[in-house]
Amino acid sequence: MDWIEGIQETIDYIEDNICETLDAECLAKLLYVSSYQYQKMFSMLCNCTVGEYIRNRRLTLAGYDLVSNDENILEIALKYGYHTNEGFTRAFTRFHGITPSSIRKKDKTINTFSRISVKTKISGGKIMINDLSKRGYVVKETGAVYYTQNMDKTIKWFKEILGWYGQIESRDQNDIGNYGCVNNIPLEIEALHIAPFTGIHLFKGEPIERIVGFMLVQGVEELYDYVKKGGWNQITAVTQEPWGGRTCEVTTIDGSVLKFFEL
């Protein structure tokens, strides 16, 4: 299959049916592939999940509707798949930085998420590899399950403090993340399956305030320096263990503990 042409075909379908029920499963059927394959390739080629693309395009178009006509806000919410005014307002405000009602009262500029042309998104990955070299350490094994009530905030912490990559794969009807992943390598590379998964699965739930994952790394001292330079002080000093390895522990923004070790 020509994945570039195939993903572009589904993007065109999304745009033509933006107000209809859309999900990864129905889009994957257009290409006769599994939902899992489709979502991985969409993320790799478009630098966002298919869910994020649909949501951001709908919110962009909803913004256009609000500034260009007098249609009722709830009618616009329903048009773009939001079942309640509250859920629409929450998502709209997060995306545009202003509530739907306020955008009609003030001379404000809406944010836009443009229609994707897949061929123009492909960049060769040079920036991603440079980012990895700046971090100075590599995670070799992990796979923890991690619970958080605020997935957006948690993923931002992983990106800013640990230098990882992440995305929310699924949100509920109130636009709250209920499943996502963070990974120590760019998601575009992980999607190619050229290495074992070395990320963390995120689920919505009460955070666990104890060790939630043991991660084998190469460069534990560099990890310590990177976290400290990022302004995060909830990390223990690197300790030489009796069994021969060296460890340090990072307490995350949710109070959970990630234990890193180097052999």
How would the global form be characterised? globular
CATH architecture descriptor text of the largest domain:
2-Layer Sandwich
Question: What is the name of the CATH topology of the largest domain?
Answer: glyoxalase-related enzyme like fold
Q: Helix coverage percent of residues? A: 40-55%
Give the beta-strand count: 9
> Superfamily at the CATH H level of the largest domain?
glyoxalase-related enzyme like domain
Topology record:
Elements: H1 3-16, H2 24-31, H3 35-46, H4 50-68, H5 73-79, H6 85-96, H7 100-103, H8 118-121, H9 126-135, E1 138-141, E2 145-148, H10 151-162, E3 165-171, E4 177-183, H11 187-190, E5 199-204, E6 211-218, H12 220-229, E7 239-240, E8 246-251, E9 257-262
Parallel strand pairs: 2-5, 6-9
Antiparallel strand pairs: 1-6, 3-4, 4-5, 7-8, 8-9
Helix pairs in contact: 1-2, 2-3, 4-6
